[in-house]
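It would be a great kindness if you could assist me with a short task in structural biology. A protein sequence and the structure tokens that stand for its backbone fold form the material at issue. I should value your view on which stretches of the chain appear to form regular backbone elements. The record follows directly beneath this note.
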Amino acid sequence: MNPSFSSYLVNDCFGDPGVYVEVRWSKRALLFDLGHNDSLGSTRLLRANDIFVSHTHMDHFIGFDAVVRVALGRGKTLRLYGPPGLIDNVNGKLRGYTWNLVDGYPLTIEVREFDRQEVRQAIFHATDGFLPSTPTVHALMMHSPTGLFPVLEDPMLTVKAVALNHRIPSFAYALEERFHINVNKQKLHEAGLPVGGWLKDVKQHLWEGKPDDFRFTAVLFDEHRRMEREFVLGEFARQFLTITRGQKLAYVVDTRYDEDNEAKIVALAKYADVFYCESPYLDIDAEKARDRYHLTARQAGMMARKAGVRDLIVFHFSPRYTGQGDAIEQEAQDAFRGH
């Protein structure tokens, strides 16, 4: 099975937090946190239209400027999601610059902040010098006893969040593919059908919930010949596709280990394929970690084990452990594997 999401840390384990997720076979990406992100380069930053902010401490938000800088002059919309206060934080960033020459620029920034039972949204247009619109308020439908709530839902994927305690709300996120669609290329070849971009449309029909009897016309190119073929969705899926459980990624930063936070994190990360979890401290310094509202490597490993995740990646190491990165990773993996 070829995974739909390709993810990696924006920086090394001692650098600013952030995870970049490429959605394969598309020009789309998602970015979790806005720490220092110059290493991504302009091309990858431009693909990240959906950005999920845990909180706005400097090491999680200083990269906002880089994203706006590469997006200026592009006909796109940036969408930011995060905790209460995010709209004011974005506005404060934008007010720090002079925008007298951007009235013809097409960039739009949409900001959604989530607070208990409501969602507030404000829009900033470059054509208006990024003056904020009057925020709109919508009810937040949250039914989960674990405190999880949706922040993004589209036909292919969902992103859910939960508010953790960092002396302020620090959002943790889970990205989940609704279901995975794998194409049997050998069967396509045997049927005389080429592999190509038309298969993305087929997948979109399935993610949108089209019925089995839905008919669609595909434009096929084979050795520079253009052909049109009509298919019935259900028949095509049974013959050429395999549908399995969707991929899941979880992202947790900046919170301390206590009963309430642990329950939320385990519920969020349950059965994730990859669990990205902050681990600034070794467990010998657990008291310091608690005082600073952070986790230890052992605590990250224990929660990963309880959540039944497939793979644990720890990061956000404190500079006090410079040169001891392997020890932090080992402590986390030992707890994760139950050693």
Summary: Residues 325-337 form the longest helix (13 residues). The first strand starts at residue 5 and ends at 9.
